[in-house]
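Q: Could you write out the predicted structure for this multi-component system? I'm mainly interested in how the pieces pack against one another.
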Amino acid sequence: MGTGLPGGFESGFIHPFSGIDHVLAMVSVGLWGAFLGRPLIYVLPVIFPAMMVAGAIMGMFAVPLPPVEVGIALSVLVLGGCIALSVRAPVWAACVVVAIFAVFHGYAHGKELPSAADPVAYSVGFVLATGLLHVSGICLGLLNDLPRGIVVTRSLGGIIAVMGVWFLYRAIGT
Amino acid sequence: MRGGVVPPALLFLALGLALAFSPRRAWGPSLLALLSAVGAGAFVHVPQTWLEGAFFGCWVSVIATAACVHLRRALKTWAAVALSLNAAVWASVVVSLSGSKLDLLKAVPCVLILLPAAWVVSRYASIPVKVVSSWVIAVAVLAATLQLLPVTPGYLPDHLE
């Protein structure tokens, strides 16, 4: 199988779930989108994979980028903070924030992609897993329609932001 | 490994999503064209030197076909038929170079995503279909880029083999 690691659909699908920082950031994208309503509820989950691909390509070509772990930790902190504080960002600003963070997440995936034994199946796995995490965030956002649901989702955002602070501390410390 | 069932399956998936935005009268001719071209293509022999170009053409076709969901107007019948023929040609070429006829047979049912996708679109909720299409495009862009990398990809033998 050449130089390849045993990387196929399964490895790609598991990869986004392998780090809690990735999982929280992607769920936050969906949750924040649900908070902001139309059009961002669907624009953010479309922008994220598109920019993630841009980041993955940068990773494949080893384009220098600021420390990726710091970028990912910041994404958890900022997105969690936006949900906790119920930030009503304009469409363009929300798109820019999500796009920048997606590049960091994609970079992390892209660096590993060329060594996968079946990179196409690996890509299908990780794009699908990422999309499902966004959808789960959007589903969590449905809580907003319930009485006191917004308190629950904002509290979730607060917990995510606090974890983002921890990830950032760890990323800067290492 | 990069051949097998995945590239034609993604191509037919993209085609199904695109056809969901075409009028129902276009489905029959399109699916007929697809099946006929796939049937004929299964027996075509393609020189192995076309491998890289065939895969690149396949990924570009996936991107172009999936991107059709963003067109402002519904696909005309001739355009739907052209997309089907294009998908059948690239899928057949790729499978002939790096797969088996069984892979082609396994991939064809992916076009049936057309049915749930068209149902969703008819309920004025085209967004989920567009989101899925953006995922398909993302995978195809990654796969096409991988071919341009100046490194030995995981599916090729390295200098030790």
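A: Regarding packing and overall arrangement: The mean pLDDT of chain A is 85.
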